[in-house]
Structures are given as C-alpha cells and as structure tokens.
Amino acid sequence: MSLPEQMVKAMDEIQESVGFSGRSELVRAAIRLLLEDTHEKSAMKGRISAVIVVSHGKDDEEPVTRLKHRFEDIVKTHVHCKTSHEDCVEVFVLSGEGQQIASMTKEFQKERKIRSVKLLQT
C-alpha cells in the first residue's frame, strides 16, 4: 500500500499521541471506524434531519457548489465560513430521506479536494 508522505507523517503523529503500538494497529482502527461509519449511513431510513460540516481550501469550492446543487431538495440551509486566509468551512442543514442524506455525505467524502466531512444526525 502506498501513501503520500504527508499522510504517513500524520499517521505517525496519531500513532504516538494515541498510543497505538504500530501503524498496522492504527490502520485496523481506522478501517473499523470506516466500517462503522458505512454501517450507520446504510441504516439511515425514513425522513430525518442532519447537519454536514465540510472543510476545504479556499480554492477548492467547486465540489461543494456542485454537490449543493445536486442535493438542493434536501438542503434547507447552507453557511459558508472563511476560517482563515486559506481555509473554509461549510455547514449544511438537511432534511429529507435518510438514504439521500447518506448519499450526499458519501459524495463529499469521495472528493479529493475536501479535507474533512462530519455528519451529525439530529
């Protein structure tokens, strides 16, 4: 498995600060979290409300705009906040079918230019 040097460095920092015995243990924990996250999204059924928080660089807004328009039927409120000269945070308040909210979250997670995605079911 090949990883960018910046990611390996971040993994080593997490390994040391959290106390994992090695990278393999860290990777197993990360995979468990991903599996749990995937299971939670697949279990989202019926009409729900949720919040998605997305962070990205100031020059990387294209995927945010594209996905906002693609899922406009469930986006009730969208707030853009520039947190520094180079960084932005987007907050989406959503209401709709759980699987559609899960799909929007997954689409954000697949975007390379998006730094982080957090889904909070209300």
How would you portray this structure in words?
A 4-stranded antiparallel sheet has the order 2-3-1-4, with helices on one face. The chain is built from 4 helices and 4 strands; from the N terminus they run H-H-E-H-E-E-H-E. It has helices at about 5-20, 25-40, 60-70, 100-110; strands at about 45-55, 75-80, 85-95, 115-120. By secondary structure, it is α+β, with helices and mostly antiparallel strands. The mean pLDDT is about 95. The chain has 2 domains: about 5-40; about 45-120, Alpha-Beta Plaits.
What overall geometry do the principal axes of the alpha carbons give? globular
Strand content: 25-35%
Q: What would the average pLDDT be, to the nearest integer?
A: 93
Number of E-type strands: 4
Q: What does the main sheet amount to?
A: 4 strands, antiparallel
| N-to-C series of helices and strands | HHEHEEHE
Give structural attributes.
122 residues; 46% helix; alpha+beta; 2 domains; single chain; 4-stranded antiparallel sheet; Alpha-Beta Plaits
In short:
The chain is built from four helices and four strands, in the order ααβαββαβ. The protein has 122 residues and is of the alpha+beta class.
Set down the secondary structure blueprint:
Layout lengths: L4 H14 L4 H20 L4 E11 L4 H9 L4 E8 L4 E11 H13 L3 E8 L1
Antiparallel strand pairs: 1-3, 1-4, 2-3
